Amino acid sequence: MASDVLAGGNPGLARLQAYPFQRLRRLLDGIKPASTAMPVPLSIGEPKHPVPDFIAEAFRAGVDSGLGRYPATAGMPELRAGIADWLRWRFGLIDARIDPDRHVLPAAGTREALFAVTQALIDPANRPVVFMPNPFYQIYEGAALLAGGRPRMLNTGGGGIPDLDGIEEREWAECGLIYLCSPGNPTGRVLPQAFWDQLFAIRDRHGFVIAADECYSELYHDEQAPPLGLLAACQAARRDGFRGCLVFHSLSKRSNVPGLRSGFIAGDAVLIEAFAAYRTYQGCALPFHAQQASLAAWRDETHVRENRAAYRHKFAMARETLADIAPYDEPEAGFYIWLPVPGGDDEAFTKALYADTGITVLPGRYLSRPTPEGDPGAGHVRLALVAEQAICEDALRRMRRFIEQWK
């Protein structure tokens, strides 16, 4: 019976690949670490810093007043206005260019929105190609497949920037949407204005949607140099109305509230209107108490600066501990280290590291796909410096001792 249902279901389901963490569990299955030290998962990017008290208080305060009402897909006007204010402040947007009623849409986190945007906005019969960076967040690929699209990988290579010059015009003509992640997961690279300008010119010839995943944008290391965002790049390019462009932001990393499942989409009003119509039927409106907590979070920057300072300190520890023995490119933002593996075998390194130290990292090939030009994820592991400082410090020291023996 089940096979009959699958046979008549979405054909994209059969093309989905195992999620990275499923592959990791299989890789480590049956291995019992020799170390008596506490196991440390550096494999998953789930923030472990404390949830700010004022956000939890706003959440609790909103529960009683919101349980008896259906929330609207568009969210509370106050929340949209608060998000628009934050966008103006953070990215230097001119007031008239960001209208909370036309350019902003709350979402149940970036994962939900990044998946849904492809279902809503591509036409697989005419423009089936969905471009995405390689390595990448696997939601991009799954969204493309389940929308009836065709994923097309853009290798980022050592520089962390997709190569737009390697794409022929006929491929761009078939493109319905391009996903980009800036700051990047896993490299931490920020896409510069020159990249966006080149992409804008290509987009205006072919008419696809630019979807920028910016969920790591607030975890930068230099307080004087916050990462460029797509909407700011549009403004610099005099791109009125953010034509063809959408950004996706989240509170999960910025404010240490992954369980709140809250973020937003912003950009082109025509695309926002179409996306809102889709999401009204999808039924993913944020509950009122989540909206109240979200508004409190977007209005406060003190906890975000403190969060950045904590990550900055951990990255300094990582440099002091690993950089001389396992050199890597310092990320511009985010909380990942994209570590080249001594010897080049990321799966073997991951297994041996776990067996010896109890530390879990993610093989780079689980975040990428092989291409004719090679597999840009192979030969790396991703470390997520999300645990508290003392735990990260201990894990980094264990890693150093292991690498000294591994080499």
TrEMBL record:
Instruction: Give the EC number(s) under which this enzyme is classified.
Output: 2.6.1.17
- The segment(s) forming the Aminotransferase class I/classII large domain are 40-376
User: What name does this protein carry?
Assistant: Succinyldiaminopimelate transaminase
**Which NCBIfam families does this entry report, sorted A to Z?**
DapC_gpp
Question: Which GO molecular-function terms appear in the entry?
Answer: succinyldiaminopimelate transaminase activity
Question: Which keywords accompany this UniProt record?
Answer: Aminotransferase, Transferase
The source organism is Spiribacter insolitus
| Cross-referenced SUPFAM superfamilies | PLP-dependent transferases (SSF53383)
Which gene is this protein's source? dapC
So which domain of life are we looking at?
Bacteria
User: What enzyme class is recorded for this protein?
Assistant: transferase
As cofactor, the record names: pyridoxal 5'-phosphate
Q: Do you know which InterPro entries this protein is assigned to?
A: Aminotransferase_I/II_large (IPR004839), DapC_beta/gammaproteobac (IPR019878), LL-DAP_aminotransferase (IPR050881), PyrdxlP-dep_Trfase (IPR015424), PyrdxlP-dep_Trfase_major (IPR015421), PyrdxlP-dep_Trfase_small (IPR015422)
